[in-house]
């Protein structure tokens, strides 16, 4: 075939026909995918469970479209099995050398789907990023970032929010990270987390009263163990070896050089922990003030002073 007097090597009527079929296939698949995602977008507005079903349905649509695209492309361009074998060998060698990260990320995508590592809406820590999963692609996971506790505030990149609330940054993490680092999932299968509140009090104060104040506040604001569904509690005991006593608030004492550290451990929902601890802290502080118990701080006692001599000169 010639264009403006220039012969186009390897381009003929048959090649042009295959090119048109390829473009048509891409357009049809794009329309099918867009239509399916539009339908699933309406399902997402029905609630959290429906949103998760919509997520997995979108993943299925994406995989189906990708499989049809590959089969269609191979069927159009490689009608000779010998040519297909040669092309597959060349492509495989090229991918293994030049696209190692891409192949690993794609493999990570299938491991995430098959291994139920996480799903959309799950709160995870992956690749050093903590937050809620908002999207999962073939190569990257998109996370709505949350803050970090003060102990890791100096991490790179710096995070200015000191609790589990959104920072406003959208972070993409390559799926290959699941092969290099652990993935921490705060919400998968187990819808609770345990939290602690530490309270230092002076040894001279009423320790039993302070402990009771902590227990009462935790019982009032934390998850009530008696309100939990019995079947869910049985499942958690069986699947995660969690004792029933662990669902109730518990206090622990620790002796230090300056004060007695009381720690209350309680069960919380996977979301809204900062609001819970804020309400609990306000309750505890109010009750401590009513009971006349102060919060201890570091103090220094001077046990002796050297003799001082003063001389007045005229």
Care to describe what's here?
This protein is an alpha+beta fold and 314 residues long. It has three domains: 90 residues, no CATH class; 63 residues, SH3 type barrels, CATH 2.30.30; 100 residues, Alpha-Beta Plaits (2-Layer Sandwich), CATH 3.30.70.100. Helix content is 46%, strand content 19%. It contains eight helices and ten strands. A five-stranded antiparallel beta sheet has the order 6-5-4-3-7, with no helix packed on it. Strands 8-10-9 form a three-stranded antiparallel beta sheet, covered by helices on one side. Strand 3 and strand 4 form a beta hairpin. Helix 1 runs antiparallel to helix 2 and helix 6 packs antiparallel against helix 8. It is elongated. The N terminus is likely disordered.
Feature tags:
314 residues; alpha+beta; SH3 type barrels; Alpha-Beta Plaits; 3-stranded antiparallel beta sheet; 8 helices; 19% strand; disordered N terminus
């Amino acid at each position: 075939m010639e264009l403006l007097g220039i012969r186009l090597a390897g381009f003929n009527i048959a090649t042009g026909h295959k090119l048109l079929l390829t473009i048509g296939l891409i357009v049809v698949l794009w329309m099918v995918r867009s239509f399916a995602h539009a339908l699933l977008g309406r399902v997402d507005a029905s609630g959290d469970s429906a949103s998760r079903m919509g997520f997995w349905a979108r993943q299925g649509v994406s995989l189906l479209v990708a499989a049809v695209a590959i089969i269609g492309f191979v069927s159009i361009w490689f009608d000779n099995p010998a040519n297909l074998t040669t092309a597959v060998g060349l492509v495989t060698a090229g991918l293994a050398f030049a696209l190692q990260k891409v192949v690993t990320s794609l493999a990570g995508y299938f491991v995430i789907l098959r291994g139920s590592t996480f799903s959309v809406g799950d709160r995870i820590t992956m690749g050093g990023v903590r937050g809620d999963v908002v999207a999962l692609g073939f190569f990257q996971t998109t996370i709505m970032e949350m803050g970090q506790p003060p102990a890791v505030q100096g991490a790179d990149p710096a995070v200015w929010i000191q609790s589990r609330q959104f920072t406003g940054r959208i972070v993409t993490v390559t799926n290959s990270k699941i092969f290099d680092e652990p993935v921490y999932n705060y919400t998968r299968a187990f819808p609770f987390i345990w939290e602690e509140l530490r309270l230092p009090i002076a040894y001279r104060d009423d320790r039993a009263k302070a402990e009771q104040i902590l227990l009462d506040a935790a019982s009032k604001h934390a998850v009530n163990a008696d309100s939990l569904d019995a079947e869910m509690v049985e499942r958690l005991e069986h699947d995660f070896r969690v004792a029933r006593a662990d669902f109730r608030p518990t206090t622990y004492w620790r002796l230090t050089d300056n004060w007695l550290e009381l720690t209350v451990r309680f069960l919380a929902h996977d979301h809204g922990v900062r609001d819970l601890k804020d309400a609990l802290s306000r309750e505890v502080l109010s009750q401590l003030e009513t009971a006349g118990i102060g919060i201890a701080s570091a103090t220094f006692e001077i046990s002796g002073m050297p003799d001082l001599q003063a001389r007045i000169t005229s």
